[in-house]
Design goal:
This protein is mostly helical. The protein has a domain at 59-193: Tetracycline Repressor, domain 2. Helices cover 74% and strands 0% of the residues. It has nine helices and no strands. Keywords: DNA-binding. It comes from Streptomyces albus.
Length: 200
């Protein structure tokens, strides 16, 4: 019999794990963590239900891992948008707000927000907390480059506009109208960072 190389086994396991996470991500993007059952994930991936337990001991671990693995993708999306925006502070903040709201529009945000019960909510929050910190990093870096004396605090304030816009979108608001207003408010807020003129 041919030998099964360790690398082949590792690759196979990695592919299976990725398929399980992708199935869970798709279910979460539909907006309800209650849909994420090992039976449904097994059905979508064509694996036996018991096989899912070889990769994740329970749903909490699976849900947390989905959010944690999504975070780098979200961060890359924002970093790419900021890089394309150039150096003007107004353009970079506008790009930051727009990039996040695009992800909300496309369903990515529901991955971090979907919950079925308190246990799921705790698991998702654990992963989402790190993800949200990572999302702020590109904006903090941009504000630091602009000479902001407290870029982390400013980033949290600007994120507030994004959070409010997200709530508006989830309530059925028109994407373009909500995005445009959020961008205008966030950009206008930069004016408050300008150093005050010293009396002569």
């Amino acid at each position: 019999m041919p030998k099964i190389h360790a690398a082949s086994v590792a690759d196979h396991r990695a592919q299976q794990r990725a398929a399980l996470l992708e199935a869970a991500r798709e279910l979460l993007a539909e907006g309800d963590a209650a849909k994420v059952t090992f039976a449904e994930i097994a059905r979508r991936t064509g694996l036996a239900r018991n096989s899912v337990y070889k990769y994740f001991p329970d749903r909490g671990h699976l849900l947390t891992e989905v959010v944690r693995e999504a975070a780098p993708r979200w961060t890359r999306h924002i970093q790419t948008a900021l890089a394309a925006a150039g150096d003007a502070p107004e353009d970079r903040v506008a790009a930051y707000v727009t990039a996040q709201l695009m992800m909300v529009r496309d369903g990515e945000h529901r991955i971090a927000r979907a919950t079925a019960d308190e246990q799921d909510a705790a698991a998702l929050r654990e992963g989402a907390k790190a993800a949200h910190r990572a999302l702020l990093d590109p904006l903090v870096a941009a504000l630091r480059d602009l000479g902001d004396e407290d870029p982390a605090l400013t980033a949290r304030f600007l994120q507030g506009f994004v959070n409010a816009a997200t709530t508006a979108l989830e309530a059925g608001g028109d994407y373009e109208a909500v995005r445009d207003r959020a961008v205008r408010l966030a950009v206008a807020a930069l004016g408050g960072l300008a150093p005050k003129a010293q009396p002569g």
